[in-house]
């Protein structure tokens, strides 16, 4: 690599994209380094508190992995398209290596809320390809996690109904008991 300082991107930062990748091969705001890498890296940093501890660890691990994956691509002879190709090729492997399959449903939903915007829709084919690669690795865990979460939500939604039915049954039982006592006392029936 031409810049030794770029050989080891500092963790939990997004500076690599501007100071190394973009500095080596200026591609502008429409290029991968600034328009995708730095943009989403910063967006994850801004939304980090919305993740569980495991989700935060995953975000920081992915940040480092994605930046390190570009070190080789950002050599002395680069082009905007070679940076973009290398970067997109590293996404799914970095997500999986960092443990995306082990994250909870809430972290998955947070990831989707961060990444699903105009930039991922503009790169729809690449985004779908990454989703397919990642999803095929994680599908069993994702389905189990979502099923569990849906079950929890249904239970939460039904709890007030269940409580109301139980209360109505108790009121009915109390009314029957009071009626029985009234009949026994006033009518002399056992």
Radius of gyration: 28 Å
Order of helices and strands: HHHHHHH
Any idea what the shape is?
A: rod-shaped
Largest sheet: none
Please state roughly what percent of the residues sit in beta strands, choosing from under 5%, 5-15%, 15-25%, 25-35%, 35-45% or over 45%. Answer: under 5%
Secondary-structure-derived class: mainly alpha
Percentage of helical residues? over 70%
Number of domains: 1
Distance between the termini: 97 Å
Mean pLDDT: 82
Low-confidence stretches: none
Number of helices, where a helix is a run of at least 4 consecutive DSSP H or I residues:
7
Compute the number of strand runs. Answer: 0
Structure description:
- With 190 residues, the protein is mostly helical.
- The protein has one domain (4-142).
- It has seven helices and no strands.
- It has helices at residues 15-24, 32-46, 53-71, 80-97, 105-115, 118-122, 124-187.
- Helix 1 packs antiparallel against helix 2 (32-46) and helix 2 packs antiparallel against helix 3 (53-71).
- The radius of gyration is 28 Å and the shape is rod-shaped.
- The termini are far apart.
């Amino acid at each position: 690599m031409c810049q030794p300082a770029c050989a080891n991107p500092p963790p939990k930062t997004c500076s690599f994209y501007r100071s190394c990748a973009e500095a080596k091969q200026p591609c502008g705001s429409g290029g991968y380094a600034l328009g995708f890498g730095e943009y989403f890296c910063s967006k994850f940093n801004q939304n980090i508190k919305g993740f569980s501890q495991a989700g935060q660890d995953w975000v920081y691990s992915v940040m480092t992995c994605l930046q390190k994956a570009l070190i080789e691509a950002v050599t002395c002879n680069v082009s905007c398209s070679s940076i973009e190709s290398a970067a997109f090729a590293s996404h799914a492997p970095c997500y999986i290596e960092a443990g995306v399959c082990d994250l909870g449903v809430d972290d998955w939903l947070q990831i989707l809320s961060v990444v699903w915007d105009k930039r991922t829709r503009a790169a729809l084919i690449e985004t779908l390809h990454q989703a397919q690669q990642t999803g095929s690795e994680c599908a069993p865990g994702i389905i189990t996690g979502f099923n569990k979460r849906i079950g929890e939500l249904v239970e939460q939604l039904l709890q007030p109904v269940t409580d109301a039915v139980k209360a109505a049954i108790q009121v009915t039982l109390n009314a029957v008991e009071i009626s029985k006592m009234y009949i026994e006392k006033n009518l002399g029936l056992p």
